[in-house]
């Protein structure tokens, strides 16, 4: 890998104090790189910490341990530093309706970043260009509209335009299409892919949808209960997943018929009570089926945390396909 | 506000302005649908015009206590003086018209003070977590639990009786309710995703408060204002009735006080105490009607449902 | 016919009163046999949820409804109120999305299921009632002892299961599931879908499954109905409809769900330009023509209807007329 990473997370931990003093380990030791110009999909179920991780990247949450580095320098949390940082890193939200102030026109919502960041230039021209690049054409028609006067897909385009107007180097998109209709979903993904091709922006897309990853991502990182459990190039990871959690996730996607459905029981545990050993072992099909015992690793699964992401066998070194499972490597 | 300066082009601003005007027209259309609101507004317009046009409607000279009047004392309403005269022979009509000025002035000015304090405290206490919020809310609760009247009486007697002090006294005792209502709304508005989006765009606290929080609580502030005015007017009446008002200027409250202390009730001089009483009731009722109608038009929950 | 139809919907029209009349469903007909699963797909605003509301007669007052909804030969739309109350739950039941809002937050879930049972069957001994509640909960995969829990003590998936248990309380023959898994996580979604499949098979339940997620429907339902702008534009066996759509709208919808591993979808997300039409100003001719990638000049004027499009299939697109010689 000759490309230096644009964004580096090193052993990032984010904790929340819940009611009754319980401490939730929302993000529990994450290492992750996003390279310039790539699309990385961060896949996981709700409660796995993926949204917290996205907010941490924006500096909206502060890690209690570890660090976030952008362009080689660690994030600082002073107001001015963060404001300048947020010209380079922008965010798109799951719910475009909530993300737009109902009292502001679309023009004002898109121009807001310019005003906050005091970007020089003709504001109206910049807003018009951002809107039309987001597929809202002719832009002037949208200037005076309020968010409730356009469709959900168009609202998401407005949010994207508002982020892209700052010409960031990294866009963090948190479930950008999950609240949208199926037909609109593809349109928004096409837009995002187009932005990558035209501007060379890097996108970290947070999603629960492996199909989305197949649609637009160069690489995939799978997150479970605050930790990345598998990571690799999209084709490799989705055609030959190694972590049992990834396998299960893939098997329940309705479009994948070649796999036997492996429906995990129960739900993701609460991040205040992370299981000992491998955090996945209480739901792991390998442990439940006795496969782990046969491999002679069951004891380790129950007691030893596979913190290290190891290269999966059969891949060329440097392909970057890694998994955190005792059964791998 | 910094955001308004800078490179905003006229045409975009114009479009926005047109939209704002249209939104206002829409709000007015909704308001018009409320009959009580229209009645209240009508009564207010009449009273405000009357008090502004006081020099045309009444003779101020008649209010001068040092002036010897030719009119009879305790005269009941007649063609000479439509509302009769008081114990000194001063026409009630002239007092009523000029008194409306003081009552409205005190009511509105005290409300402005209360709204500014209440809104600032409410927004700041709602927006920030931790000790600033806790301190502000303790102060608010302190003001809220202290009975209004004793506090106002103490303040008024320390500051001395004149219109300015009455305004100050009422203003600084009427804000805590507003502060609490505003804070509650701020607590929900600051959770909204658009506040998070603005923060992600690089906004600092000041921008978030001025561009997102305040615009979204302003309808509430407006509705609260119209509901605070009648309370302030009643407070002025109370203070004046207790002899803590401005002795040199007629207000409705002071008219009631004088009527009472000069034995108007014993003399059955209804023309002395009824007009200011009815005036107060009308103004208070009118503001309340307007306030409730506005609340219905501007309530964010109702608005969101409509859109 | 040996097996009479369970549900027979004939030319159903639903118009909402707001703003001078919004036609949400414009002439929908379909049939459902006992134990059959039918999927209804379409984008938001296509009328699929209105259809569900009409089947249950749960529409806001003032809504105009015409046509027939025959449940076991009896018209739901003209039933008397008391009969309707009896029919809901005992004949047909519904599972909505968003379990948190449908359950009463201050009542134990067991109590809520008991209530559903006792409103339709009086005089059941307390102990038997308890037993039935526990049994229902076990059926949907929740331990019976959780009956004493309040909704907030359950996870999202468990609440959705409770809703299903609630729907099953009076052993209905027909279950209407309106986006039952939309708000759930993928794994929980799979659990709930499998549960519905099991129930359908074990209890011989007929299910009308409504969602925008065509791929889920294809996996769960035998037959599929695709709606656009208040009308059915395609129906047929779900594998075939999803696998080789005859209507361009279905094709676009199907393409929106990428097949992982299929090179055609790799780095090529596919969507459908434009937005669904405003029901008050529907396009002329085929309502889909302004968004259609293969529209012909005639589509703007020619009225479409569901034409036969192969074995057991129909589609409302002039293209099918080219294939099938008349």
Description:
The complex is a heterotrimer of chains A (329), B (307) and C (326). Chain A has 329 residues and is of the alpha/beta class. Chain A has a single domain (5-323), classed as Rossmann fold (3-Layer(aba) Sandwich). Chain A has 14 helices and twelve strands. Chain A has an eight-stranded mixed sheet, sandwiched between helices. In chain A, helix 8 links the parallel strand 7 and strand 8 (202-207). Chain A is globular and about 65 Å long. Chain B is 73% helix and 0% strand. The two termini of chain C are 29 Å apart. By secondary structure, chain C is of the alpha/beta class. Chain C has two domains: 1-91 and 173-188 and 200-264, Rossmann fold (3-Layer(aba) Sandwich), CATH 3.40.50; 102-171, no CATH class. In chain C, strand 7 (174-178), helix 7 (186-203) and strand 8 (206-211) form a beta-alpha-beta unit. Chain C has an eight-stranded mixed sheet with strand order 6-7-8-3-9-10-12-11, with helices on both faces. A four-stranded antiparallel sheet of chain C has the order 2-1-4-5, covered by helices on one side. Chains in contact: A-B, A-C. The A-C interface holds A 45-46, 151-154, 181-190, 193, 208-212, 214-216, 234-235, 238-239, 248-250, 252-256, 258, 261, 263-265, 267-268 and C 43-44, 155-157, 185-191, 194, 212-216, 218-219, 252-253, 255-261, 265-273, 275.
Profile the largest sheet of chain C: 8 strands, mixed
Q: Class by helix and strand content of chain A?
A: alpha/beta
Helix content of chain A: 25-40%
Major β-sheet strand ordering of chain A:
6-7-8-3-9-10-12-11
Task: Give a short summary of the structure.
The complex is a heterotrimer of chains A (329), B (307) and C (326). Chain B is mainly α and 307 residues long. Chain B has helices at residues 10-32, 35-52, 54-57, 92-127, 131-145, 148-159, 163-173, 176-189, 193-200, 205-241, 252-261, 270-298, 300-306.
């Amino acid at each position: 890998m000759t490309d230096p990473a644009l964004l580096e997370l090193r052993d990032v931990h984010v904790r929340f104090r819940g009611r009754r003093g319980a401490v939730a380990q929302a993000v529990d030791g994450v290492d992750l790189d996003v390279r310039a110009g790539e699309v990385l999909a961060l896949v996981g179920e709700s409660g796995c910490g993926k949204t917290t991780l996205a907010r941490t990247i924006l500096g909206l949450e502060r890690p209690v341990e570890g660090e976030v580095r952008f362009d080689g320098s660690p994030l600082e949390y002073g107001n001015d530093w963060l404001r300048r940082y947020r010209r380079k890193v922008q965010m798109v939200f799951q719910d475009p309706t909530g993300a737009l102030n109902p009292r502001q026109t679309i023009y004002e919502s898109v121009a807001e970043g310019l005003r906050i960041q005091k970007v020089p230039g003709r504001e109206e021209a910049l807003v018009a260009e951002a809107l039309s690049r987001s597929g809202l054409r002719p832009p002037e028609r949208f200037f005076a509209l309020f968010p409730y006067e356009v469709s959900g897909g168009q609202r998401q385009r407005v949010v994207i335009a508002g982020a892209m107007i700052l010409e960031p180097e990294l866009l963090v998109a948190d479930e950008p299409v999950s609240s949208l209709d199926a037909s609109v979903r593809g349109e928004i993904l096409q837009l995002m892919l187009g932005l990558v091709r035209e501007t060379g922006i890097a996108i970290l897309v947070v999603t629960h949808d492996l199909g989305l990853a197949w649609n637009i991502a160069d690489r995939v990182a799978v997150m479970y209960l605050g930790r990345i459990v598998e990571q690799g190039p999209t084709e490799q990871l989705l055609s030959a997943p190694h972590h049992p959690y990834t396998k299960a996730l893939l098997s329940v996607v309705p479009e994948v018929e070649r796999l036997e459905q492996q429906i995990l029981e129960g739900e993701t545990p609460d991040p205040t009570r992370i299981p000992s050993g491998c955090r996945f072992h209480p739901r792991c099909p390998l442990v439940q089926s006795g496969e782990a015992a046969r491999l002679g690793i069951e004891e380790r699964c129950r007691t030893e945390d596979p913190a290290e992401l190891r290269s999966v066998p059969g891949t060329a070194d440097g392909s970057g396909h890694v998994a955190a499972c005792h059964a791998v490597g | 506000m910094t955001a308004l300066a800078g490179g905003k082009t006229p045409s975009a601003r114009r479009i926005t302005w047109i939209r704002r005007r249209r939104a206002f027209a829409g709000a007015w259309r909704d308001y018009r649908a409320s009959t009580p609101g229209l009645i209240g507004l009508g009564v207010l317009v009449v009273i405000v015009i009357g008090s502004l046009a006081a020099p045309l409607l009444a003779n101020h000279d008649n209010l001068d206590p040092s002036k010897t009047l030719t009119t009879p004392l305790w005269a009941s309403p007649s063609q000479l003086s439509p509302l009769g005269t008081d114990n000194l022979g001063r026409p009630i009509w002239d007092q009523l018209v000029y008194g409306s000025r003081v009552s409205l002035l005190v009511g509105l000015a005290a409300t402005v003070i209360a709204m500014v304090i209440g809104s600032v405290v409410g927004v700041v206490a709602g927006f920030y977590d931790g000790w600033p919020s806790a301190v502000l809310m303790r102060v608010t609760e302190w003001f809220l639990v202290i009975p209004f009247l004793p506090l106002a009486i103490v303040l008024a007697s320390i500051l001395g009786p004149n219109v300015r002090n009455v305004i100050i006294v009422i203003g600084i005792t009427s804000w805590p309710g507003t502060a609490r209502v505003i804070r509650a709304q701020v607590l929900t508005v600051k959770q909204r995703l658009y506040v998070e989006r603005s923060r992600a765009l690089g906004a600092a606290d000041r921008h978030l408060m001025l561009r997102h929080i305040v615009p979204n609580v302003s309808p509430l502030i407006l509705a609260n204002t119209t509901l605070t005015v009648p309370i302030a007017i009643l407070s002025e009446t109370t203070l004046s009735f207790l002899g803590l008002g401005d002795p040199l200027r007629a207000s409705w409250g002071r008219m009631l006080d004088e009527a009472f202390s000069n034995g108007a009730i014993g003399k059955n001089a209804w023309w002395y105490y009824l007009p200011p009483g009815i005036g107060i009731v009308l103004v208070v009722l009118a503001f309340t009607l307007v306030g409730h109608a506005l609340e219905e038009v501007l309530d964010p929950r109702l608005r969101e449902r409509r859109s | 016919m040996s097996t009479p139809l369970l549900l027979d919907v004939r030319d159903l029209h639903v118009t909402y009163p707001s703003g001078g009349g919004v036609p949400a469903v414009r002439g929908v007909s379909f049939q459902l046999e006992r134990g059959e699963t039918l999927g209804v797909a379409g984008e938001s605003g296509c009328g699929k949820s209105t259809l569900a509301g009409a089947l249950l007669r749960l529409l806001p007052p003032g809504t105009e409804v015409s046509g027939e909804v025959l449940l076991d030969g009896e018209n739901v739309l003209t039933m008397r109120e008391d009969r309707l109350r009896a029919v809901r739950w005992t004949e047909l039941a519904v599972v909505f999305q968003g379990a948190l809002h449908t359950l009463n937050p201050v009542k134990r879930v067991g109590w809520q299921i008991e209530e559903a049972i006792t409103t339709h069957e009086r005089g059941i001994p307390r102990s038997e009632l308890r037993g039935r509640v526990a049994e229902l909960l076990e059926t949907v995969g929740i331990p019976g002892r959780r009956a004493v829990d309040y909704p907030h003590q359950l996870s999202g998936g468990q609440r959705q299961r409770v809703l299903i248990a609630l729907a099953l309380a009076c052993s209905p023959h027909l279950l209407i599931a309106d986006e039952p898994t939309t708000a759930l996580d993928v794994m929980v979604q799979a659990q709930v879908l499998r549960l519905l499949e099991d129930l359908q098979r074990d209890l011989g339940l007929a299910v009308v499954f409504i969602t925008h997620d065509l791929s889920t429907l294809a996996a769960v339902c035998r037959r599929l109905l695709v709606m656009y702008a208040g009308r059915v534009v395609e129906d047929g066996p779900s594998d075939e409809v999803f696998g080789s759509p005859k209507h361009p709208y279905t094709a676009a919808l199907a393409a929106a769900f990428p097949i992982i591993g299929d090179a055609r979808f790799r780095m090529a997300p596919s969507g459908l330009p434009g937005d669904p039409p405003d029901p008050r100003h529907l396009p002329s001719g085929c309502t889909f023509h302004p968004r259609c990638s293969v529209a012909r000049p005639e589509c703007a004027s020619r009225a479409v209807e569901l034409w036969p499009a192969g074995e057991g299939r129909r589609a409302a697109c002039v293209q099918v007329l080219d294939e099938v010689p008349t």
